Amino acid sequence: MEEQLRILTGLWTTPPGRRFSYEGRHHRLTDSPALPKPVQRPTVPLIVGGRGPRRTPALAARYADEFNLPFTSPEQSARLYARANAARARVADRPPLVLSVGLGIACGRTEAEIADRLAVLHEESRLPPEEPLYGSPARIAEQLGAYAALGTTRVYVRLRDLSDLGHLDLLAAEVVPQLP
């Protein structure tokens, strides 16, 4: 992964008209024109995520703009965010990392609605095991507040039933306005 990150950032930051070369253990590029260039300036925002306790936070600190945690508790998130922030502080001339988390959410106005949405989240998946947030809009906002208190500024919501637009409407109308 580190080699891939070095290649991406090298290609994106090579000045137009110049060539990029890289020799690594797994990958090699020789005299690449490093084209096309990203439209975003200075480069495409890079997100590095994962639960690895040492290398992942270190890679995020060195290469990424955002550090994302998949399906982690507030306690686990606090530990990994602290490692990423400490590693970032040792990297010169880089702004603080955006901290984000991916979470399964089952929100509803009634117990039956919550149970239906929660059941879909527990269907078999290749994603890492997770303990989704569930409950009323007020409870979901309270749970998300625990992540915000850690510095989380972005949440990627995992919704398995993409046809349940009422769920999105409920989150947008009754949860988001309660967030800090």
Q: What does this protein look like?
A:
The protein has 180 residues and is α/β, with parallel strands linked by helices. The protein has 2 domains: 1-44, no CATH class; 46-178, Luciferase-like domain (TIM Barrel). It is built from 6 helices and 7 strands. It has helices at 2-13, 55-63, 74-89, 111-121, 137-148, 165-175, and strands at residues 20-23, 28-32, 47-49, 66-70, 98-107, 133-135, 152-158. Strands 3, 4, 5, 6 and 7 form a 5-stranded parallel beta sheet that branches. Helix 2 crosses helix 3 (74-89) and helix 5 packs across helix 6 (165-175). It is elongated, with a radius of gyration of 20 Å. It starts with a helix and ends in a 5-residue tail after the last helix. The mean pLDDT is 93.
CATH topology of the largest domain: TIM Barrel
CATH class of the largest domain: Alpha Beta
- Overall tally of domains: 2
Number of DSSP helices? 6
Low-confidence sequence ranges: none
Distance between the termini: 34 Å
User: Helix and strand string, N-terminal first?
Assistant: HEEEHEHEHEHEH
Inertia-based shape: elongated
> In which range does the helix fraction lie?
25-40%
- Given helix and strand content, the structural type is alpha/beta
What is the beta-strand fraction? Answer: 15-25%
Number of strands: 7
Domain Luciferase-like: 1-118
Keywords: Flavoprotein, FMN, Monooxygenase, Oxidoreductase
InterPro entries: Luciferase-like_dom (IPR011251), Luciferase-like_sf (IPR036661), SsuD_RutA_monooxygenase (IPR050172)
GO molecular function, one term: alkanesulfonate monooxygenase activity
